[in-house]
Write a structure and sequence with these properties.
196 residues; alpha+beta; disordered N terminus; binds fe (ii) ion
């Protein structure tokens, strides 16, 4: 029998202090998977890339630079095919606003890309972006599998209930699972690409 989502959420919240205790910064993989592949779940929905995408971002797993303001964020998850199989070597490009809601449109601050590992995992260390006028808090991402089309989409934070509800682009299927506090957060999202 499937566990109701509300109960799962409660269990997740109860487990969070443990997930973070004894580990200076826990792994996103400790969070529940986001509903992703398999029955009743299609590929991850695409969304507009918005006006601030810059191609050719640096290859790196940390976008954090010393002195940056904001809550530290470790975000990661999996890239899966339609049959829930992990996809390795998927290019994952992440870009987002800073703690004042600004994008770097002249350089590559808070922009970077990496490739999923043999188990389909991706993970970035960065900071929590601020909301900016007209938008709820979000991360931008592009995923390019070796054989398949690029997925361009955005990821959202479940704690931003009111601003998510007001946002015209927001899609609840793109909500991450998150944990943490004002100092540091972890967030997880598992992408499903239209391959396989
Ligand atoms: Fe944006």
């Amino acid at each position: 029998m499937k566990t109701p989502l509300t109960t799962r959420r409660n269990l997740l919240l109860a487990a969070l202090p443990l997930a973070l205790a004894g580990d200076s910064w826990a792994q996103p993989s400790k969070l529940d998977p986001t509903p992703a592949c398999g029955e009743n779940h299609g590929p991850t929905p695409s969304q507009t890339e918005g006006p601030y995408f810059t191609p050719n971002s640096p290859l790196r797993t940390s976008l954090y630079e010393p002195g940056m303001d904001g809550t530290r964020l470790r975000v990661g998850g999996l890239a899966l095919d339609r049959n829930c199989r992990p996809l390795s070597n998927v290019l994952v490009d992440l870009w987002h606003a800073d703690a004042q809601g600004r994008y770097d449109n002249s350089g590559y601050r808070l922009r970077g890309h990496q490739f999923t590992d043999a188990e389909g995992r991706w993970q970035f260390d960065t900071i929590l972006p601020a909301l900016y006028p007209g938008r709820t808090r979000h991360l931008h991402v592009k995923l390019q599998p070796r054989d398949g089309r690029v997925l361009t989409t955005q990821l959202y934070f479940p704690a931003d209930t009111a601003s998510n509800a007001r946002d015209r682009i927001f899609d609840k299927r793109l909500l991450m699972n998150t944990a943490g506090d004002a100092e540091q957060m972890i967030a997880r999202y598992d992408f499903v690409l239209a391959v396989g």
